[in-house]
Design goal:
The chain has strands at about 1-5, 5-10, 15-25, 35-45, 45-50, 55, 60, 70, 75-80, 85-90, 95, 100-105, 105-110, 115, 120, 120-125, 135-140, 145, 160-165, 165-170, 185-195, 200-210, 215, 220-225, 235-240, 250-260. By secondary structure, it is mainly β. Strands 1, 2, 3, 4, 7 and 8 form a 6-stranded antiparallel sheet that branches. Strands 18, 19, 20, 21 and 22 form a 5-stranded antiparallel sheet that branches. Strands 5-6-9-10 form a 4-stranded antiparallel sheet, with no helix packed on it. A hairpin with a 3-residue loop joins strand 12 (about 100-105) and strand 13.
Length: about 270
């Protein structure tokens, strides 16, 4: 499933925010098909799923499709096996955008992002099968806040990964004209044990400072794809980690194009294929 986002007009470069949900059948090639709609026109949102239910963290929304209206604390869900519009799931503790997500077949965890102009390092979780508000999980294991980390879900049945991103000392919100020493890209990869709450733990490093790439996984191997480099330029790098053991990234190959700001998915829902 793909939720929301925005379209850019190729002629006048204008952006239009959307509330559409589309799906693909992973076992066959082909274009996306209409699934339904979210309650808001939104972008900078996050998402994850179990085998049966897809979750969307609304992120930033737009009332009229052309002008951002604000950040949202809404969480919504769909039943994957039947098309239709999203249903209210509950609320996050804060209005947050640009979050990263991971999870198992039963629990979803999201982290980092932007809250009221400041970067965050908190993590919260939901139980996917039952609607309700999110609960505190812990914080990422850094003295800095993190924002715009990789999109998509990288996890095994027990362990989830958060890759790369942008770090700040908390005094400089996104867009501030400050040096990368205060607001810079990172190569940090952290992991959590999904079934128990707690802070992030160092896993290893990407091969370079990167943010807003795509991440996905099988039950055993996680991929980090594309993203923006230290200067924000798109790259075509693909690298992998073995989820069950810590360590730095290993080269996997290359994307056909250099890409930035894209999510990724796979047929492994919380480690179940």
């Amino acid at each position: 499933l793909n939720y929301g986002g925005f379209r850019r007009d190729r002629y006048n470069n204008a952006e239009t925010y959307v509330n559409e949900i589309e799906y693909i059948t992973l076992t066959s090639t082909g274009n996306g098909s209409d699934f339904g709609n979210l309650s808001e026109y939104c972008f900078n949102q996050g998402g994850l799923s179990s085998q049966t239910r897809g979750i969307a963290f609304i992120g930033r929304y737009s009332n009229n499709q052309t002008n951002p209206a604000g950040r949202s604390d809404k969480i919504e869900y769909v039943t994957i096996s039947s098309t239709g519009n999203s249903t209210d799931f509950g609320d996050s503790s804060e209005q947050t955008t640009d979050t990263g997500a991971t999870g198992s077949a039963t629990r979803g965890v999201y982290a980092a992002g932007v809250q009221a102009g400041q970067n965050a390092k908190i993590m919260e979780y939901i139980t996917i099968a039952s609607a309700g508000n999110s609960s505190s999980f812990g914080t990422l294991n850094t003295s800095y806040s993190r924002v715009t980390i990789f999109s998509g879900v990288a996890s095994s049945e027990t362990r989830g990964l958060f890759m790369g991103g942008v770090m700040s000392d908390g005094s400089n919100p996104p867009g501030s004209p400050v040096s990368d020493a205060l607001y810079g890209r990172t190569d940090t990869v952290e992991y959590i044990t999904i079934g128990s709450t707690g802070n992030g733990t160092d896993f290893g490093n990407l091969s370079s400072f990167r943010y807003i790439g795509g991440q996905t996984s099988s039950r055993t191997r996680a991929l980090a794809m594309g993203g923006g480099d230290y200067e924000g330029a798109a790259v075509n790098i693909i690298e992998y980690f073995t989820i069950g053991s810590t360590g730095n990234a290993t080269d996997f190959g290359d994307l056909t194009e250099k890409k930035i700001e894209f999510p990724a998915n796979s047929g492994a829902h919380g480690g179940v294929e």
